[in-house]
Structures are given as C-alpha cells and as structure tokens.
Write a structure and sequence with these properties.
Structural class: alpha+beta
Shape: flat
Organism: [Clostridium] asparagiforme DSM 15981
Distance between the termini: 127 Å
CATH class of the largest domain: Alpha Beta
Catalytic activity: ATP + protein L-histidine = ADP + protein N-phospho-L-histidine
CATH architecture of the largest domain: 2-Layer Sandwich
Helix content: 40-55%
Protein name: Stage 0 sporulation protein A homolog
Subcellular location: Cell membrane
Number of strands: 22
Number of helices: 20
Strand order of the largest sheet: 2-1-5-4-3
CATH topology of the largest domain: Beta-Lactamase
GO molecular function: ATP binding; phosphorelay sensor kinase activity
Length: 748
C-alpha cells in the first residue's frame, strides 16, 4: 500500500513538474513572440521616421532650388536682359546672371538651359566639374517649354550609374511669356547629400521612386530605372508576389505607411523578406516615393539573441528549482558578489561625476563660442576706429617733427592707439577668425609695471594708497608687452575693487629668485632665474573655497552683470603662454596677494624704431578706387594717398563704385576694398571687378582675415590683404607692387 502511494506521489509530482515546464515554455514563447512583434513595430516606426525625413529634405531642397532660380529670373535686370535679347539678339547680360547663379550654387545644377518663347535654346552653361554627357532628347526641353508648367520636369538616366532630373522655371515679364529656364540636376549628388548619410550600416537601403514607379535613387546602381510592375513578369497573378502587391498598392494610395513583404528584383538582388516604411514627397503636382527597407533577419537578430538569453534564464530557473538545497550556499557566495557590485556602483558614480564635468565643459565651450562671435564683431569695429586714429597721429608726428611743442602729446595718442590695436589682437583668439599678429620680444618688466601703475592712478579712489618697491636688477623677460600690461592692469583693478569701500594699500613688489625658490606647484618649470611680482591688497580677502576657483573660466563673486569671470582665467592663460605661472594667497578680512612668476631673459629689450618723416614722391599717374563703408577710413586714406600723388576716388557705397566701373566712365589701376560692408561683401565686389578688368590690382583691407579672402588671395582674385588698422607704408608698397605687376602683364 505504501509502495502504491509512493508511486502515485511520484507520478503526480512528475505530472506537476511536466505541467509546470509546459506552462513555463508557453509563457516564454508568448513573451518572445510579443517582444518580437513589438521590436519589429518599433523598427518600422524608426524606418518611417527616416523615410519621412528624407522626403521632407528632398522636398525642401527641390523647393529651394526652384525658389532660388525663380528669384534670379524675376529680377528686373534679368527680365530686361531677355527683352533686350528679343530686341537686338544680345545674350551677354543674361549669361552674366546665369553664370553668377551657377557660381553661387556650385554643387547643385550641372547644366542650365535658357529657352526662348518658342522653345528654342538661346544658350546653356555647364557646371564645373561635371563628368558625363547628357542626352538632350531625354531632357524634353521643348516639351517642358511648351507645357509652361514650372516645377519638376523630366527624370532621365545620365548614365548606367546615376539619374538626373530637370527643374522648369517659366519667365514672365511685362510683355507676357518670355521663355523658360531649365536646370539639370544630378540625382546622385542629391542622394549622397540627403539620403546616403541616413542609410544605416549594412542593414538596409533607402530607395526613391518617381511618380511612374521607376527607381531613380538606389545604393546599388543596377536597380536604377527598375520598375516592379513593368520588370517583374506575372506580378499581378503569381501568388508568391502577394505581399509585394499589397505593399505597392498601399504605397501608391497612402501618404506614408509600413509593411512586411517578400522583396523581388527580377534576379538583380536576392529574394528576401524585408521590413519597410515609405513616405510620399509631393511637389508641384509630382509625387515621389521614398522607401526605407531592411532585412527581416536583421531586425529579429536582436530577438534571437534575447531568445538565447531567455533559454539560459530558463535553464537557470530549472536548475534552481531542482537544486533548491544549494540556495543557502549560493547566498553565502553572494556576499562576495555584493562587494563587487558595491565597487561597480562606486565606479558608476565616478563615471556620472565625469559625465557631469563633461556637460559643464560643454556649457563652457558654448559660452566661449558666443564670446568668439562677439569678439570678432568688436575687433572689426575697433579696427575701423583705430585706422584714422593711428593714421592721423602718425601723419601729424611726421609733419610737425620732434621740435614741435605738440609732438609728445601726439606721440602719446599714437602710443595709446598702438596699445589699443594690440589689445584688440588679444581679443581675437576668442574668435574663430583668429589673426596671429602678436609677437614676443625681450621687454623691460619695470617699465611695464610702472606704465600700468601710471594708468591705474588715474582711476583709483583717493582712499587707496599705492606702494611700489621694485628690484634694482632692471629685469628683462621674453614676452608681449601688451599682454603683460593687460595681466597687471587686471590684478591692479581687482585689488582696487576689493578695497573700494573701506580703502587700503595696494603694493607692487618684485624680486629675482632661483628655480628652487619657486612654490611647490611651480617647480616643474624650466631651470634658470625667475622674477616674482607680488601684487597685494588689504581688502576683503577670499575664502578657501573661492580661492580654489578664481582661475576657472566664468567664475566670479560679483553680482550678475558686473563681471564675466574671464579676467583671472585670461591672466592664467597669458602667463602660461609666457612659460610662467600665477598663484594666490588670501584670507577673509586680511586681503589678498597674487604672485606672478616669469623666466628672466638675457639681452637688451627691443627698442622702438622711430618713424622717419614721410617723403613726398613725384606725382604718379595711378588711379585708385577706395571703397569702405566707414567714412572716416575713406577720408583718412584718401587724404594721405592724394598727398603721395595718387588720384583717389572714395566710396562708402560699394554699389556706386561698381556702377561707375561698369559704366566705363572711370578706369582705375588699383582698388582698395573693405571686406565687411553692408549690401555686398568685399570678396564678391573684388570678383566682379576683376571679371570686368582682369589686370586690376585688388587690395583688401580687413579687421578679420576670413578663409574666403585667403582662398581668393591664393587664386589670384585678390593681390594683397592688409589688416586694419592699416600701416600706410605697407599700403603704398602694395599699391606700387600691384601697379608694376599690372604693367608687366599688359606689356606681356
């Protein structure tokens, strides 16, 4: 009896275990199936986003192209040039507009046709570089002109590896229809710009079809011009094409959607089941279809990996059920695992702190980017102002001579202007358009310290006293005097602000020390002697927490709007560039001391070369156009150039100068043009003038050297680039050099 009960118990236990295993298997299968469907649906939505983005990008691109060419053809000048063509048959003015448009859209149209009102070609321009021949019969030029419908014209094969399309723009003037402008676009360029970059790594294709179902963009060139309905025999009847037929019907009747179907390509590509999403691009009555497809196997590959993990999990669970007696043992072993997890969590916490620091650095970079843009604009405006200041002061020095009672006063003006110029050059490193014009040389540190104290005495309140105690060694350092002057002024200013309320003592001391006497954190600097500059105040002082942050960019203890937090950061950067260092000591209520350490150099400081009075040369028959939107710059340069014997026509309106040149009323040997002007940039003006007069000497003056200007200089479109404030002798030398080159080219 006991044996039978024991056998029944075993059978029931076995059945229960079998039922539990079956139930577990069903749950696992349903979970996997639901998860697979969910991931496939998510993948379809992701593909739909890509298709939608590609369709919108292409629609926006084509609309922009049509709008751009329409804006050119509707300008009064172009309309007048077409009507002029019908009157006298002259096409030069029309060609100039079309050529300028193609120059500004060098990666867009590969060819532009201009047709008359009868559909006959007037002329066409090719883009450079463009490789390949166009079958003009396939373009349908006459048919597009006859329809008089602006928008997408025809889609045609350029060669076996790419297709093209035409964009039609009809031109209407006061006398009605004047003609048609047809732009030929390379769809391979469009595909690489707006489609290929969104194609995911070896997991699928982005395909574009025209309104007739022909494939016009595909990563595999063999599929170009393929049409499912035309090139797959028995597509409408064979049962294996059922899923493909449903997808095509859905695609042609809906704006967008998703599908899972079996893909066929007439033997060009292997058959496979794919997940796809599509979106329609509608423009001017034309519809294109953007499809994004990826193999189903790739989509479920992740799920297959998850299945393996689920299987492992199931085996683990089964093992735990069978081997329940070992749970206590495993719990004891888990202590070690917990310790490892604690260590892992600490590492995660450290990683999160690093991530937070990275975000702070990103915000800092964003601030610096904003400062860069602002610095570029400030530098440009200041250089415009400094040009007449430096120029007139230099001119007065030369005219009055050293014996004049006003010579020293004018020299101070010129000296201050020069220092302002160098300070502007220190602003430029914050800009993307940095101009490396600063230079290092041997300078006398005592002179710089006293000069900075002289300036600070003019602005400090009466309750602050100054104490100066400089070493007798007459120390020289190798560096930039303006930058070091900026460092000292910054420290003096901070000290005065700390004592502004209650007054106090600002002391400046220097002493020569050896490398061994440097603070501990500065011992890694090079061997040799150093000079220590101590700038101390008896102001409010700083806490330890503030002291550790004062050299960080954008850190400030001032109220919002009263400081940027860049001062001490710039001080530190300048001293690092001078192979030096800075440190600070302070306590709340006891004042602060800043210590600057700079390596001592051997040698005599550079002596400023005195300018010689300007010599009047014989009158030169050189005619110059001076173009700058700043009237003060034009007035100054014109006056000095005319005193040298040049004939100068000054303009503050670049369009007026161009109009005089086009009219032929005035002929110039050289043009001096500003880079940044309202209405038209100096580079564009220089190109147009160079086109009208190839031998013209073009000199560009600018506060910021732009890459575009450097490229034109390299191509010979610009003969010379001078930085504002302009050195007058350099300008004269550039004019003479350009004039001699002009004479040589004419004689040749």
């Amino acid at each position: 009896m006991k044996v039978l009960l024991e056998e029944k118990r075993k059978i029931i236990l076995a059945l229960l275990m079998g039922a539990a295993l079956l139930f577990f298997a069903v749950i696992m299968y349903n979970t996997y199936d639901a998860y697979t469907n969910m991931v496939v649906e998510q993948q379809q939505q992701h593909l739909l986003l890509i298709s939608r983005a590609v369709a919108q990008n292409m629609e926006l691109y084509i609309s922009d192209q049509l709008r751009d060419i329409r804006s050119v053809t509707q300008t009064p000048g172009f309309l007048e040039s077409m009507e002029y063509y019908y009157t006298v048959g002259e096409t030069a003015r029309m060609k100039e507009y079309i050529f300028s448009y193609m120059q500004s859209h060098q990666q867009d149209p590969v060819r532009i046709y201009v047709l008359d009102r009868y559909g006959q070609e007037i002329f066409h321009y090719n883009q450079y570089p463009f490789s390949g021949e166009l079958d003009e019969d396939a373009l349908g030029l006459a048919e597009s002109a006859r329809k008089r419908e602006s928008g997408i014209g025809t889609v045609f094969p350029i060669d076996e590896e790419r297709c093209g399309m035409t964009l039609v723009t009809n031109v209407y003037g006061g006398n009605g229809y004047l003609g048609t402008v047809i732009s030929v676009m390379d769809l391979d360029v469009l595909y690489k710009r707006y489609v290929a970059n969104l194609n995911f790594r070896d997991q699928g294709d982005i395909v574009v079809k025209d309104g007739n179902g022909n494939i016009i963009m595909h990563p595999d060139s063999r599929m170009l011009q393929f049409n499912f309905e035309r090139d797959i025999p028995d597509l409408d009847s064979m049962p294996q094409y059922e899923s493909l037929r449903r997808m095509l019907k859905k695609q042609y009747t809906n704006e967008e959607g998703t599908a899972v179907y079996d893909s066929y390509s007439g033997g060009i590509l292997p058959r496979e089941q794919v997940i796809a999403a599509f979106s329609r691009m509608n423009l001017s009555g034309n519809s294109w279809y953007v499809s994004t497809a990826m193999p189903y196997s790739k989509a479920v590959e992740l799920q297959n990996n998850m299945l393996k993990r689920f299987g492992l999990l199931a085996a683990t669970v089964l093992f735990l059920v069978i081997a329940g007696g070992t749970i206590i043992y495993h719990l004891l072993r888990n202590r070690q695992k917990l310790r490892l997890e604690t260590k892992y969590l600490k590492e995660i916490n450290s990683t999160l702190e690093e991530l937070h620091q990275s975000r702070e650095e990103a915000r800092h970079y964003q601030k610096l980017t904003t400062i860069g843009t602002l610095a570029g604009g400030i530098a440009h405006e200041f250089n415009n102002l400094l040009t007449p200041i430096l120029g007139y002061s230099e001119f007065l020095e030369e005219q009055l001579g050293r014996k004049s009672e006003y010579f020293e006063d004018i020299a101070e003006i010129h000296k201050a202007g020069t220092r302002a110029k160098e300070i502007v050059e220190q602003i430029l490193p914050f800009s993307r358009k940095e101009t490396d014009t600063t230079s290092f040389k041997s300078v006398n540190l005592d002179v710089i310290i006293r000069d900075a104290l002289k300036m600070i005495r003019l602005i400090i309140p009466s309750n602050i006293r100054l104490e100066e105690k400089l070493d007798d060694g007459n120390v020289n350092v190798y560096g930039n005097a303006t930058q070091l002057h900026q460092v000292l002024l910054n420290l003096y200013s901070n000290a005065c602000q700390a004592m502004e309320k209650d007054g106090g003592l600002l002391s400046v001391k220097t002493r020569r020390i050896s490398r061994e006497e440097l603070p501990e954190h500065c011992r890694e600097m090079a061997d040799g002697d150093y000079v220590e500059i101590a700038v101390c105040d008896t102001g409010c002082g700083m806490s330890e927490e503030v002291l550790h942050q004062i050299f960080n960019p954008f850190f400030t203890t001032k109220e919002a709007g009263e400081g940027t937090g860049l001062g001490l950061s710039v001080v530190k950067d300048i001293l690092i560039n001078h192979s030096g260092a800075v440190s600070a000591q302070s306590r709340p209520g006891e004042g602060s001391c800043f210590y600057i350490y700079l390596p001592v150099t051997i040698g005599v400081c550079a002596v400023q070369i005195q300018r010689q009075p300007e010599k009047r040369e014989e009158v030169k028959q050189i005619s110059i156009a001076l173009i700058d939107d700043e009237e003060s710059v034009v007035k100054y340069l014109r006056k000095r150039l005319e005193r040298r014997g040049y004939h100068v026509d000054g303009y503050t309106d670049p369009e007026a100068a161009l109009e005089d040149m086009v009219s032929g009323r005035i002929h110039w040997n050289a043009v001096i043009v500003d880079y940044m002007m309202p209405g038209i940039k100096g580079t564009a003006l220089a190109q147009r003038m160079k086109k009208l007069q190839p031998y013209l000497c073009v000199i560009m003056i600018t506060g910021l050297v732009d890459r575009e200007a450097l490229e034109l200089r390299q191509d010979g479109q610009i003969d010379n680039i001078l930085i504002k404030p302009v050195n007058f002798e350099e300008l004269v030398a550039a004019i003479d050099k350009g004039y001699r080159r002009q004479l040589d080219m004419i004689e040749y």
